[in-house]
Model the fold of this input.
Amino acid sequence: MQFVRKGDLLSVARITGSHDNLLQLRLSTGAAASPVVECLPGRRSFNHETLDLNKVLVAVLEGLAAVNQELGTSYSATHIRYVPNDSPPETVYGFLAMSLVRHFATGGTFVEA
Done:
């Protein structure tokens, strides 16, 4: 996985064979209102069906809840960004959210963009 920071936006990218996924989060501590969900420009080289925005949102929120319980933290997302024609299934975004928060919370290195 690749971890990148651009300002206060944290990104995680996972590329495994024919599967590519990118998730960007702006994190906050404590409870937050519903996050803003944005679609990044689609990749023309991908022929995947468009991911379901609501399923991506649910997966990210479930991933954040699970990692917060695991780490004893209270991170929430104020912004969620993803590529709408990335590889399915949408549930992978829960795994990506957990990986990103674990990396951030444990002082992992982020490449500056």
Observations:
- Residues 2-112 form one domain.
- The beta strands are 2-6, 9-16, 19-29, 36-39, 75-82, 111-112.
- The mean pLDDT is 92.
- The chain has one domain: 2-112.
